[in-house]
Design goal:
The complex is a heterodimer of chains A (about 475) and B (about 500). Chain A has helices spanning about 5-20, 30-55, 70-90, 100-115, 120-140, 145-175, 180-190, 195-210, 220-225, 230-250, 260, 270-290, 295-315, 320-355, 365-370, 370-385, 390-405, 410-435, 450-465, 470-485. With about 475 residues, chain A is an all-alpha fold. In chain A, helix 1 packs antiparallel against helix 2 (about 30-55). The longest helix of chain A has about 35 residues, at about 320-355. In chain B, helix 2 (about 25-55) packs antiparallel against helix 3, helix 3 (about 90-110) packs antiparallel against helix 10 (about 250-275) and helix 10 runs parallel beside helix 13. Classes of the chains: A mainly alpha (about 475), B mainly alpha (about 500).
Chain lengths: ~475, ~500
C-alpha cells in the first residue's frame, strides 16, 4: 500500500508538471488551471491530515524524510496557505490567467511539504531550493518594473542565503562525515570545535533570511511591496514558515555553541534572545512609520518572527524542561496562527489593491463603509496579531511569554509584552482609519467573490481557535513533546 | 453547579447580534428590545446581588461557582472559573443598572449608527460581567481586554470633535497598562511551586505559605500599573479627561460608572487578594498615592470650566477614596476601609453616572457645557436644574445621599491607620466647595435675555430618580452592601 505522503508528493509534482500544458489548449476557462490546483491542494491537505494521524515511514526515502507530527503541522500550514492564495488568485490573476502561475505555486507547495519532513541536510537543501526558485519567478510575475525589481532583489538575496546554507552544510559534512541532521548534531555536541560554531551561526544566518530575522530582513519590505500581493501572502505566511521548520529541525537540536566558543555569553539561548528582541523591536518601530499597507504588513511580519523566536530561547535555555516544551509549543502554535492572521491581512490588502487599485494607507480611510467584509477581516487579523484576546494570536503569545516569564529571560518576556502593546499603536490606528475616518469617496464597491470566501474561512479560524484553542494547542504540544523527546 | 453567572455573561453577548439586526430593521424596535434585554440582565444581576446578601459566602468562599477546564496541556492549565462574593455582586448589580439607564438615556442623544451602538453596549456589558465574575487570572485578563474594544469605538465613532485622538489615547494607555499586568500574572504563575491561575487556589496556597514571599513584588508592581491606569490614579490618569470630554454622555456614564470600577476591583481582588505580603509592606505608598489622587482630583476639578471635565476630575478624586480605604484596612486592620471602598464604588457609580448623563442633556438642550456660559438654569430649565442640584449633593457626599456614608467609612479607617490622614477630610470640603460654586454660577444666576432652552421631559426625570433614589434608600439599608462586604474585608485582612 502506498502511504499518504507519497501520494501527496506524486499528486503535487504531477499537477505542477502538467499544468503548463494547458497553455496548448484554446478557449478554456481562464481559471481552469487555478481550479485544478485548488482541488489538488485540497486533496493534498486531506492526505497530509490522514498521514499525520497515521504516520508511516516513507519507503523510498526512509533516511531522508521523518514522518512526525511536527512535519505534519508545517506541511498543513504551508499547503493550507497555498490553497488560500490559489483561491484568492482566481480573482487576482484573472488578467493573466496563465497556467504557469499555478504550476509554480504547485512546485512551491511541493517544496514546502518535503522541507517540513526533511531529516537530512541535503534533502532539506533540495526542498529549500524547490520551494524558493518558483517564488523568485512569481515575485516578478506582474511584468511591471516594481515587480521585476522585487523579483531580482529577492532572487539575489535568496541565492545568497542558499549559498550560506550550502556552505554550512559542507562544513557540517566535513566535520561529521554525514548529512543526516541527527548525526551532525551529535557530532557537533560530542566534538565541539570552532568550525562547528561557525557552521551553526551560518545556519542561523541562512535560515534567518527566510524567517525574516533582523539583521537579515532588508529584502523583505521591498519584495513584499513589489511582488503581486497574493505572492506576498505566500512569502509571508507560507515560505517564511519553512524557514522556521528548518531552524527547528537543525538549530534547536544544537543546544549550545558554548562548548565551541568557551564563553557562556555565546549560548544559543542568548543568541536567540538577542535576535528575538532586536527583531520584534525593529519590526514594530519600522511598521509605525510606513505609508503603504504592504510595507507595513512586511514589518509587522518581521516583528512576529521575533515573537516566534522566544520559544527557541525557552527551549535552548533548558532543553527538556517544562518551559522548553511550553516555549516550543508556543512557537509552533504561533507559526500556525501567524500564517492564518498574516494570510488574512495580506489577502485583504490584495483585495483592496485589486478593487481600489491602491496600496497606500489613504485608501484605507473609511474602508469600513466601502468594503465592509475586507475591513472586518483586516480588523480581526490586526487584533489577533496584536494579541488581543480572545483571538487565536493571544493564546500563542501567551504560551511564548509564559515560557520565559520567570527566570533569566524575564526581560525578554517583558520586552515582548511591551512590543505587543506598542504594536497595537499602529494596528488600532489603522482600525481607526478604517472605521472612524472619513473616506475620500463613499461609493460602495463590490468585493471580489473568491476573496470573500477565503476571508470567511480565515476569520473563522482566527475566532474559532481563539475561543476553542484546546485542539490546536494539543496538536502543537504533542509535536513539540515528540521533538523534545 | 449553577449557570447563573454564565448566563449573566452570555445573555448580553448573544443579545448584541440580535439587537444589531432588530435596530437595522427598525430603530424604535431595536431600542425597545435593548431596554427589555438589559432589564432582563438587570433582573438576573439583582437576583445574584440579593442571594449574596441573603447568604454571604464565608471568607474566601464564592457563590454561584462554575468551573470547567478550558485549556490544558502538561505544563499549562487554565479553567473557565466563575464565582461571586460581596465584592463583586454590588458591582454586577450597578453595572447592569447603569446599562439599562444608559440605553434609556441614549435614545435621544445618539443619532447615527444606532445598530452598532446598541450591540456594542451589550458586548461591553457581557465583558464587564466577565471581569467581575472571573476567578481565573487569564479569564479575567481576557474579559478585561475585551472591554476595551467597544469603548474604543464608542469614543471614536460617537465622540466629540477630538474623538479620534481620545480613542487612540484611551486604547494605547489602557492596553499598555493591562499587558504589563499580564506579564505580572505570568511571572507569578511560573514562579509558583505548583502553578495555578485560579484565584481561590492561589489564596489557599498563600494561607498555607506555599508561595515564596519574594515572588510577590514583581506581580504587585506590574498589576499596580494595570489597575492604576484604569482607576485612574494620578499620574496615570491623563487619558481620562480626554476620553470623558470626547465620549458621548451615555458612554461617559459607562466609563466612570463601570469601567473605572475595574481598577478598584482589581486592587481589592488581585493586588491585595493575591499579593498580600508585598501589599502590606508597601501599603503606605499606596495609601499616600490614593490620598494624593483624592486631593489632585478635587483641586483640578475646581479649575475646570467644562462641566464634564469637572465631573471627570471628581471621578479621579472619588476613586482615590477606593484605594485609600483599601490600604487603610491593610495598615490599621480596621475592616471599615475595605467595606467603605466597596460601598464607595457602588455610590460613585450612581452619583457620577447621573451627573454625566445630565451633562449630556444640558449640552443637548442648552447647546454648551461651559460653566460660565450656562446661566439661569434655575428659571429656564427648572427640572434639569433641580436634578443637577440633587446629583451634585449626591456627589458631594451630602446626607441623605449614602455617598456620605461611604466617604465617612473610608476616612474613619484612614484615621485609624494614622491620625495624620485626617487631612483627607478636606477633600469632601473642597468637593462641596466647587460643586456649590458651579451651582451658584449655573442654577442661581439670572438667565441671558432671549436665550431659549427646553427642559427635560418627565420620563427623563423618572430616569434620574432611578439613579438617585437608591442612594437615599441605601443610607438606611447600607447593610445590603456592607454585610456581604464584611467577610471579604476580613478575608483580605486575614491574608496578610
Amino acid at each position: 500500500m502506498i502511504d499518504y505522503l507519497t501520494t501527496t508528493v506524486v499528486l503535487l509534482a504531477g499537477t505542477a508538471l502538467l499544468l503548463p500544458l494547458l497553455q496548448l489548449t484554446k478557449g478554456r476557462n481562464p481559471n481552469l488551471a487555478g481550479y485544478i490546483l485548488a482541488l489538488v491542494l485540497a486533496a493534498a491537505l486531506l492526505f497530509i491530515g490522514l498521514f499525520t494521524l497515521n504516520p508511516t515511514s516513507v519507503p523510498w526515502a526512509a533516511s531522508l524524510l521523518i514522518p512526525d507530527q511536527l512535519g505534519g503541522i508545517f506541511a498543513l500550514v504551508t499547503v493550507g496557505i497555498t490553497l488560500a492564495v490559489t483561491v484568492a488568485s482566481f480573482d487576482f490573476e484573472k488578467s493573466t490567467s496563465n497556467p504557469v502561475y499555478y504550476s509554480l505555486l504547485g512546485f512551491t507547495a511541493l517544496g514546502m511539504v518535503l522541507l517540513a519532513y526533511s531529516q537530512d541536510l541535503l534533502m532539506l537543501f533540495v526542498s529549500w531550493e524547490l520551494m524558493s526558485l518558483p517564488t523568485y519567478v512569481l515575485a516578478g510575475f506582474d511584468k511591471k518594473l516594481r515587480s521585476n525589481e522585487a523579483s531580482v532583489k529577492y532572487a539575489i538575496i535568496g541565492a545568497m542565503s542558499s549559498a550560506v546554507i550550502l556552505y554550512a552544510i559542507s562544513l557540517a559534512y566535513g566535520l561529521t562525515g554525514s548529512t543526516s541532521i541527527a548525526a551532525v548534531v551529535s557530532g557537533f555536541t560530542s566534538h565541539p570545535s570552532a568550525l562547528a560554531g561557525v557552521a551553526t551561526l551560518l545556519f542561523v544566518a541562512g535560515f534567518g533570511f527566510k524567517m525574516s530575522i533582523v539583521p537579515f530582513h532588508m529584502w523583505i519590505p521591498d519584495a513584499y511591496e513589489g511582488a503581486p500581493t497574493t505572492i506576498s501572502t505566500l512569502l509571508a505566511a507560507a515560505t517564511k514558515k519553512a524557514g522556521f521548520i528548518a531552524a527547528i529541525r537543525v538549530l534547536l537540536a544544537i543546544t549550545t555553541v558554548y562548548a565551541v566558543t568557551r564563553s557562556p555569553v555565546f549560548s544559543m539561548a542568548n543568541v536567540f534572545a538577542v535576535l528575538a528582541v532586536i527583531t520584534m523591536t525593529v519590526g514594530n518601530v519600522s511598521a509605525l512609520t510606513q505609508k503603504s499597507m504592504t510595507r507595513l504588513l512586511a514589518y509587522s511580519s518581521i516583528a512576529q518572527a521575533g515573537y516566534i523566536l522566544i520559544g527557541f530561547v525557552a527551549y535552548s535555555n533548558a532543553p527538556g524542561s517544562a518551559a522548553a516544551t511550553l516555549g516550543l509549543t508556543g512557537s509552533i502554535f504561533h507559526v500556525i496562527n501567524h500564517a492564518v492572521m498574516k494570510g488574512a491581512a495580506f489577502l485583504a490588502a490584495a483585495a483592496v489593491l485589486l478593487v481600489l487599485k491602491r496600496a497606500d494607507l489613504r485608501a484605507y480611510d473609511g474602508l469600513g463603509k466601502r468594503m465592509p467584509i475586507t475591513a472586518f477581516t483586516l480588523t480581526v487579523a490586526f487584533l489577533g496579531l496584536a494579541g488581543v484576546p480572545p483571538l487565536s494570536g493571544f493564546w500563542s503569545k501567551l504560551l511564548l511569554v509564559l515560557s520565559v516569564a520567570n527566570g533569566p529571560y524575564a526581560w525578554l518576556a517583558l520586552a515582548a509584552i511591551l512590543n505587543s502593546a506598542f504594536s497595537l499603536g499602529y494596528y488600532a490606528w489603522l482600525i481607526k482609519r478604517m472605521y472612524i475616518d472619513e473616506p475620500e469617496s463613499t461609493e460602495k464597491v463590490k468585493e471580489p467573490f473568491w476573496f470573500v470566501v477565503v476571508f470567511a474561512v480565515l476569520v473563522g479560524l482566527i475566532i474559532g481557535i481563539g475561543l476553542f484553542p484546546q485542539a490546536v494547542i494539543n496538536f502543537a504540544s504533542s509535536a513539540a513533546s515528540t521533538f523534545v523527546g | 453547579m449553577s449557570y447563573v453567572l454564565s448566563l449573566l455573561i452570555a445573555l448580553p453577548v448573544f443579545a448584541a447580534p440580535l439587537v444589531y439586526a432588530l435596530t437595522k430593521v427598525n430603530k424604535k424596535l431595536g431600542i425597545y428590545a435593548s431596554l427589555g434585554l438589559s432589564a432582563f440582565v438587570l433582573l438576573i444581576a439583582g437576583y445574584v446581588f440579593w442571594q449574596v446578601y441573603a447568604a454571604p459566602p464565608a471568607p474566601g468562599q464564592y457563590l454561584f461557582q462554575e468551573k470547567d477546564s478550558w485549556v490544558s496541556i502538561s505544563s499549562f492549565g487554565l479553567d473557565y472559573f466563575l464565582g461571586t462574593d460581596g465584592l463583586s455582586s454590588p458591582l454586577l448589580f450597578v453595572s447592569a443598572l447603569l446599562t439599562v439607564l444608559v440605553i434609556f438615556g441614549s435614545r435621544k442623544l445618539i443619532d447615527h449608527h444606532e445598530a452598532e451602538y446598541y450591540s456594542l453596549i451589550f458586548l461591553f456589558e457581557g465583558a464587564i460581567m466577565g471581569v467581575f465574575t472571573s476567578l481565573n487570572l487569564i479569564l479575567f485578563y481576557i474579559f478585561w481586554e475585551v472591554v476595551l474594544i467597544p469603548m474604543f469605538f464608542f469614543i471614536g465613532v460617537w465622540g466629540g470633535p477630538r474623538r479620534k485622538y481620545a480613542a487612540l489615547k484611551f486604547i494605547i494607555f489602557t492596553f499598555t497598562g493591562s499587558t504589563i499586568m499580564l506579564f505580572g500574572f505570568l511571572y507569578f504563575y511560573m514562579g509558583m511551586p505548583t502553578p495555578s491561575f485560579d484565584i481561590p487556589t492561589i489564596q489557599a496556597m498563600l494561607l498555607s505559605h506555599q508561595i515564596p514571599a519574594a515572588l510577590e513584588y514583581v506581580p504587585l508592581a506590574a498589576s499596580f500599573i494595570g489597575f492604576a491606569v484604569k482607576l485612574p490614579l494620578v499620574p496615570f490618569h491623563t487619558w481620562l479627561p480626554d476620553a470623558h470630554v470626547e465620549a458621548p454622555s451615555p458612554i461617559s456614564v459607562l466609563l466612570a460608572g463601570v469601567l473605572l470600577k475595574m481598577g478598584g476591583y482589581g486592587f481589592l481582588r488581585i493586588s491585595i487578594g493575591l499579593f498580600p505580603g508585598a501589599s502590606v509592606q508597601y501599603a503606605w505608598v499606596f495609601l499616600i498615592l490614593g490620598l494624593f489622587s483624592m486631593f489632585y482630583g478635587a483641586v483640578a476639578a475646581v479649575l475646570q470650566k467644562d462641566l464634564k471635565k469637572m465631573i471627570a476630575f471628581t471621578s479621579i478624586n472619588h476613586m482615590g477614596f477606593v484605594l485609600f480605604g483599601a490600604y487603610a484596612t491593610l495598615i490599621s486592620g480596621n475592616v471599615l476601609g475595605i467595606q467603605g471602598a466597596i460601598f464607595q464604588m457602588f455610590t460613585h457609580a450612581l452619583a457620577i453616572g447621573s451627573l454625566f448623563m445630565l451633562t449630556g442633556y444640558i449640552q443637548h438642550q442648552a447647546g454648551t457645557r461651559e460653566i460660565p456660559l450656562l446661566k439661569g438654569l434655575g428659571t429656564s430649565m427648572p427640572r434639569t436644574a433641580a436634578i443637577l442640584v440633587l446629583a451634585s449633593a449626591a456627589a458631594m457626599g451630602l446626607p441623605p445621599f449614602s455617598s456620605f456614608l461611604a466617604e465617612f467609612l473610608v476616612i474613619a479607617a484612614g484615621i485609624s491607620a494614622s491620625a495624620i490622614t485626617a487631612i483627607s477630610i478636606l477633600v469632601p470640603v473642597i468637593t462641596a466647595g466647587y460643586f456649590l460654586w458651579m451651582i451658584k454660577r449655573t442654577v442661581l444666576s439670572s438667565p441671558e435675555p432671549g436665550h431659549e432652552a427646553h427642559d427635560m421631559g418627565w420620563s427623563d426625570v423618572a430616569a434620574f430618580a432611578v439613579y438617585l433614589i437608591p442612594l437615599v434608600i441605601l443610607i438606611v439599608t447600607s447593610y445590603v452592601i456592607l454585610n456581604p462586604a464584611l467577610p471579604v474585608a476580613e478575608f483580605l485582612k486575614g491574608l496578610t
